[in-house]
Amino acid sequence: MTTSAAAETAGETATETKTFPYNRACPFSPPPEYEDMIEQDVSEVTLDGSGLRIWTITGYHTIRRLLTDPRVSASRKHDNFPFYFVAPPEYRTETSFIGYDGPEHTSTRRKAAITFTYRQVQRLRARIEEIVDDHLDLLLSLEPPVDFHRIFSLAVPMTVICELLGIPQDKHDFFIKHGTALLGGHSSTEERQAAIVEVNAYIQDLIDLKKREPGDDLLSRAMADYEASGEEYTDRDLFNMVRLLMNGGHETTASQISLGTAYLLEHPDQLEKLLGNPDLVKPAVEELVRIATIGDTAVPRVALEDIEIGGQTIKKGDGILCLILAANRDPEIFPEPEKVDIERGSRKHLGFGHGVHHCIGADLARVELEIVWAKLFQRIPTLKLATPFLDIPRKEGAVIYGLWGLPVTW
């Protein structure tokens, strides 16, 4: 065997034994390993932590079909559910509608959905504008450089979701800390388990308070809805829903704010377009959600029966991961997919998921992002990164991709 052949064989072996998830080439590009996986559409990978062999799907059309296929389940209770980290037992049992199927999913999701309708979200626009302005005031009161991610990106959506759920604002740091433990890529099993216990204990106290003193908030309305419908429910149903909305309502939007802001600062041609035409903020949101795809690996499923896809048979009980980052770069759907053009504005991306589990807070996230990027650069036109972008630590391997910080100055 020649030296080059030996090296090639060694490289193939290293690729075969490398565990999933893989690191991105840069914050906005798929991992190099995705190249072959995209060609195949359906591939097998070994998960980090568990060593479980599961299937990955990369094709845009294939993923859309699969996410509306009744032969796949979102339930975390299946033995081969594709956790790509060592998950504590509570990750299987302490879930809400994101991990339910069928009527159970529909019933539980409906309790929260009324708060997140397009009409309801538009009514919140004025209050969200106030929140954004308040946090921009705070940012400008500090001496740069500052961590934009901590001071602004995390704080804005946290304030919004706390108000919606009726959670006191002094609990920001508590939920940010535990949200990072639950969704971050560096947390140990013990840290994730401890976070669930502490968050559940707090939410239980909150539920008891809302039972005594109901207010105009999602939690109070959900309890009233259960009572009016006569449906049986437990406090566990409520705190699983609240915990899901808390984590999903701030960590995701915070990551998108920081990544999108960094992208615009790194690409002044796109920022100039936005500043020159404020009406571009809506399409800009869609394009920045597409290119960042913070939920690349956040769509796990399990096959309920044998499924044929692309000449492969996914067996009943097999775990599946839909790789949204790859789907959002399908050239048939997004011409020149690696090129970011804030005028593209396509809503065909899968950044908010697809099917019955489409992100319940998508409209809220869109409004928050629109307001942030409409105001941020108008109020701080000299904003710039204080650290080279590629030197900023990233949340590789996290459930929600993002940055650990974003140092800025002006």
3D structure, described in words:
With 410 residues, the protein is an alpha+beta fold. It is built from 17 helices and 10 strands. The strands form 3 sheets. A 5-stranded mixed sheet has the order 1-2-8-5-3. The N terminus is likely disordered.
Strands ordered across the widest β-sheet:
1-2-8-5-3
CATH architecture: Orthogonal Bundle
* Rounded mean pLDDT score: 89
Number of strands: 10
The first-to-last residue Cα distance is 58 Å
Shape: globular
CATH class: Mainly Alpha
Instruction: Give start-end ranges of low-pLDDT stretches.
Output: 1-16
Estimate nothing, just give the exact number of structural domains.
Answer: 1
> Portion of residues in helices?
40-55%
Q: Specify the biggest β-sheet.
A: 5 strands, mixed
Tally of DSSP helical segments = 17
Portion of residues in beta strands equals 5-15%
The Cα radius of gyration reads 21 Å
Q: Briefly note the structural class of the backbone.
A: alpha+beta
CATH homologous superfamily designation: Cytochrome P450
- At the fold tier of CATH, the topology name is Cytochrome p450
How would you describe this structure in keywords?
410 residues, alpha+beta, Cytochrome p450, five-stranded mixed β-sheet, three-stranded antiparallel β-sheet, 10 strands, globular, disordered N terminus
